[in-house]
Amino acid sequence: MKVFLTGGTGFVGSHAAEALLEEGHEVVAMVRETSDVEHLRMLGVEMVTGSLGQAVEVRSVLQEVEAVVHIAGITAGVDPTLLYRVNAAGTRDLVDRVAEVCGSGTRFVYISSISAQGPSTGPGPRSKDLLPNPVSHYGQSKLDGEGAVLAHRDELAVTILRPPVVYGPRDRDMLEVFALANRRITPVLSGESRSLSVVHGEDLGRAIAACLSAPGQGEVYPVDDGNCYTWQQLGELTAEAVGKKTLTLPVPPVMMAGAAWLAEVGGGLLNTTATFTRDKYREMVQTSWVCGHDEIRGDLGWEPRWTYGEGARQTVEWYRERGWL
User: Fold this and answer.
1) Under a CB-based contact definition with an 8 Å cutoff, are residues 3 and 20 in contact?
2) 233 to each of 162, 193, 252, how far by Cα in Å?
3) Which among 40, 67, 112, 196 would be 20 to 30 A from 13, CA to CA?
């Protein structure tokens, strides 16, 4: 199958490209002129220059594909409107173009986020019967992107994935967590216990590839590694992975909120986008972000291969081999 891939130069996209190629698919990736394409080039992926919001640029390529895997997006912005412009309007522009150009039944796999459905309660996954309730602009922008995709479910074979926190080799977002543990510090939000799910990048890549075999009737699949972790447990497993004994540092939520505000202000002064924002803080203070993966296992036979303990050790090895840690 010839697959059009967006976000292929990113962390998740790189693992998706590898998984798609391993399954025997042909991949053509949309990349920006400024993107680092070295990994895709090493994989032998065909590339075309384009960007979200300008899908007309890749019209001729879309006419040749049988499936689209849409990963490209942003997790933070200097202004919330940027999240909606990229994650919602950009997705709408792409899926509208695919519906217009590609044949009926073309597969469209959209990588959303657990943030789109909102937090769960306790150590179990959020009930499918509950309406989505995002607590952040990021989550709402991804939910709006889902709506744009589902609007074409009668023309396209649509499937949506909702991953939690993703980690693994080549990831920079979680690198600071490992770096803090390497400095013998494990920050944990004080107060009530908080539960969350995670998934390894390789496993998410395999789940994305598996979705090309989904019924394509608008399925929405949460995906995780099969475990529910507390912050304390993740901290302990991270410390084990780096081989250090760490000091658990309880951080009051009000202090974390202040840090998010300062990061935004600093980013604005330096004209850069802070990765930790008040939007991210609103997600962080929730008591539960648990996914589960019963639906994708039942429909597609997908199972995770990595638990966090094993995956964290592999990730640390990769970081150290490249001098990141």
Assistant:
1) yes
2) 23, 11, 18
3) 196
pLDDT digits (tens, 9 = 90+) for 238-264: 999 999 999 888 888 788 778 776 776
How far is residue 109's CA from residue 6's CA, in Å, rounded to a whole number?
A: 11
List, as one string, the DSSP characters of 147-171: HHHHTTTTTSEEEEEE--EEESTT-
This prediction's pTM? 0.94
260: amino acid identity, one letter: A
Summarised one tens digit per residue, pLDDT across range 107-152 is 999 999 999 999 998 888 998 889 999 999 999 999 999 999 999 9
Backbone angles phi, psi at 124, to 5 degrees: -105, 160
Give the C-alpha separation, 84 to 80, whole Å. Answer: 7
- The pairing of beta strand 195-196 with beta strand 229-230: antiparallel
